Amino acid sequence: MAMSVLVTGSHGRTGKTVVKALAERGSNVRAFIRDPAQESEMKAIGASSIAVGDMDEPNTILVALEGCDTIVHIGPPMHPDEKAMTCHFVDAAKIAGVSRFIYYSVMHPLRREVRHHRLKLDTEEMLIESGLPYSIVQPMRYMQHLEPIWSKVMADGVHAMPFNTQVKFNVVDLLDLAEATARITLGEGWLYGTYEFAGPEALSQSDMAEIISKVTGKNIEAAHFSIEALQNKARANGASEDRVDQMTIMNQHYNSFGFLGNSRILERVLERTPGTFENYVRRLYTQS
Ligand SMILES: NC(=O)c1ccc[n+]([C@@H]2O[C@H](COP(=O)([O-])OP(=O)(O)OC[C@H]3O[C@@H](n4cnc5c(N)ncnc54)[C@H](OP(=O)(O)O)[C@@H]3O)[C@@H](O)[C@H]2O)c1
User: Does CATH number 3.90.25.10 belong to domain 141-172+199-260+276-288?
Assistant: First the structure.
């Protein structure tokens, strides 16, 4: 029987794109989901098998790993138990004889004041010391943060974020991240490496608003809304106080420093230039 790649967080925004990218490259993907109702959707995007389990329940993880020699672990965002949950997968991977553990981290986990970055840093350390053959990918902020607000941006003519309009980000296309993660997972020669994945341009909210205006022909302004407004919106959407706290810290940090990175490593892994924000907006505009 051919070995499979277990992908965790597979029903999430990142997980779905990674499952697709692996399946497109001929891999047997086993999607780790917690709700059996998600099975048909996961199969439709390319998963060849399904494991229903919970990242908090080690016994479900051991069963999920049967017949898998590789794991791509994508934890839920800003989760206070990131390290403990990853540790369950590391322990099970050792028992199952997994030969590659790919950990989906974040760029600059060393920014320890941003709590979810510190959680990823602690998790990376645990994985590196586990003795398992590993690769770590460290993605920058996604271009896809535009997607949930796209119709509002189009309706109001305002691209608003909870940080000032001038700080810059090397935002990256999630499709490039998924492809690069698949290449690292399935290719030879990437073990014991940590890979920073950033987009090719440093862009402020103002720069992004200009690009959106150019692509759509509408006048889009950049705007800065307050942290209090962010907190109210998050609470109204049912976010826990811990999540509200983590989002506050992250956005305050962005407001001071932005988030810059270098795209050469992503370019090397993809063997092509990573996509620009303009290309991404053209795709989004065409699909909308
Ligand atoms: N967004 C960015 O710009 C960015 C940048 C760098 C790194 N990242 C990292 O990317 C990762 C994924 O983020 P995302 O936005 O794709 O997440 P997401 O869309 O919220 O997906 C998270 C997935 O994890 C699943 N999940 C949550 N708790 C679980 C549990 N206890 N057991 C099993 N499954 C569980 C969820 O299952 P359900 O579908 O059942 O809810 C969901 O499918 C995060 O680690 C984040 O830090 C994101």
Answer: yes
Residue closest via CA to ligand 1's atom 19 equals 12
Q: What is the CATH number of domain 4-139?
A: 3.40.50.720
The overall pTM is greater than 0.90 = yes
For the chain, give every residue range classified as CATH 3.90.25.10. Answer: 141-172+199-260+276-288
pLDDT tens sequence across 182-198: 999 999 999 999 999 99
For ligand 1, atom 4, the nearest C-alpha belongs to 141
C-alpha dihedral sign at 100, 105, 110, 112: negative
- pLDDT tens-digit profile of 100-143? 999 999 999 999 999 999 999 999 999 999 999 999 999 999 99
Å from CA of 74 to ligand 1 middle: 6
